[in-house]
Amino acid sequence: MEQTKALVYQFRFVNTISEIKKSDWNAYFGITHPFTRHEYLSALELSQCVSVKSGWQPQHLVISQGDTIIALMPMYIKTHSWGEYVFDWAWAEAYERNQLHYYPKLVSSIPFTPTTGQRIGFAPLLSEDEKQSVITQASQFIDQQLVERNWSSWHGLFSLHSQHTLWENTLVTQRLGCQFHWRNNGYNDFNDFLASMSSRKRKNIIKERAQIQQAQLHFTFVEGNKATAEQWLGFVQCYQRTYLKRSGHQGYLSADFFSLIAATMGEAIRLLLIENSDNQLVASALYFVSDNHLYGRYWGALSEFDGLHFEACYYQGIEYAIANQLSVFDAGAQGEHKVARGFYPVATYSSHIIKHQAFNDAIADFCEQEQQHIKLYIQQMTEQLPYKAIQ
């Protein structure tokens, strides 16, 4: 019987996404998910928000078969764990206690963006068997590079479940997480959404929104490529001021970054402008859209109003999703307070390769135990959903 010849792939790193054609990258990842677009990742690099200095050194992986690119992976050498949102600080501290170096490490993620998406882009028409072969050999290559380049580990964060399962039979340890996303259950408008909730929860939301109505604020969504330079500057001022107040710095992202994405992918951006009765900007929020998702990413305020955060970051997003028939609203990481406002708990997935065998075993045990807690937590949060009946 003739044996099937094993496919052999070649692997190489590039230290800037500009070395990969935009047409190739976007053909492999698609352009419906805004954060894996070449334009988004390029803006992060051109603005120096990701760089050696920021601790996010681009190290993208190109996988080829002969002269043909088969797959692409966004990848970064990290010298810290900021901006990832799959928390491994305890792992780093354990390394330090044992006088071992956890940094640098290798991360496949979208910097500062905890949204689920593709973490490997495959050539169109690649079969499932071929995809599995690519993943298997990629895990072996990464494991080898950890040794040769003295990286402690590799972390693939916020993977699509369909891609996450491809790593199951490889060298990786898998980790479960939880976020909260709103689902559009065919609502006609916001009142229709409220009608699906229990009386007490519905009244709480009405009360929260009434606070803002009394403030006589005006909310306007503007497409990113139609927003003026002044409107973008206002958003940046809001974003930087709120970050400075909360974290002591002006945020991970710069005005240059926002200018670049406005110019290159503005059609996928929705800028929410919030003005007072004198038409003065008091707050702003930045959203992204795909074919069926709305993503709430950043916000900031120049003035304080009770309930403004919930209105700008949750309720305005829900209204927009309903009006535009979007299926899911992802308002960002964490926050179980979202459950009372109709957001469902959803699982998130990450994969990890740890070079040090003893730590690999310990982390695998930890992730297995943690997974049971996360599953229970998701079940408990589901039971607390405010709907009249679980939908």
From TrEMBL:
Pfam families assigned to the protein according to its UniProt record, in alphabetical order: FemAB_like
InterPro entries: Acyl_CoA_acyltransferase (IPR016181), FemAB-like (IPR007434)
Gene3D superfamilies hit by this protein: 3.40.630.30
PANTHER family with a match to the protein in the record: ACYL-COA (PTHR47017)
The protein, known as: N-acetyltransferase
